[in-house]
Amino acid sequence: MIGESSTDLNQAAKELASFRKNGLKFRLGKLEEAFLSRGLGELGQILEDEKLTGSLLMSALLIKDASSQINEIVHAVGILKSLPSLLDSGELVESLSLGAGNTGRQFDLETNFRVAEFKFIEWKGADAVRQDSLFKDFYELAEFPTDKKKFLYVVGIDYPTKFLQGKRACKSVLTRHQKTWKHFEENYASRFTTVGYYFTHRAHSVRIVDLTELLPEMALR
User: Fold this and answer.
1) DSSP annotation of 68
2) Is 71 helix (H, G, I), strand (E, B) or coil?
């Protein structure tokens, strides 16, 4: 079994790059043609000709394992790298949640001056799961009883703002987050039917900040 040293990862990446040369869709299409109408006696030779080896499969598994927690790594490193740019003089970190979810903590970051949530997903357009998560975070920040400033950090400001000003039903957006929906329903269900209506009501409560202003690396992708 291939280990997980940097050398092994580099070799695995090269093998996968070779496999998907000219594009994965093109490659898979050619493989579909190559195996069409072939019988048991021919399979071994085709696998050899197409370099579909055990090593290739192991390389794919290695890269899959190595990248399985990549989102958590981005989340953790992104928050920590942003701290020098966002903290004010005299501001001290009181709580951090760097793993998946908030690990029992209320927010990703709490200082003596602010509470904050971070969304490192790059928006490409309509995406219900991302929208649901964004609104949940905005709502929980907006409703949190504190005198501290509230921040929601996102990658790119246009898509998130457009969504928060939009017409998706609050019930639909919070379906995946039953605890938050229950709180919303008890307080606002008959008052604010859409995300946009609620956002207008609470827009002044939470400052939405583009992470690319704090982390130039985020804008280079």
Assistant:
1) T
2) helix
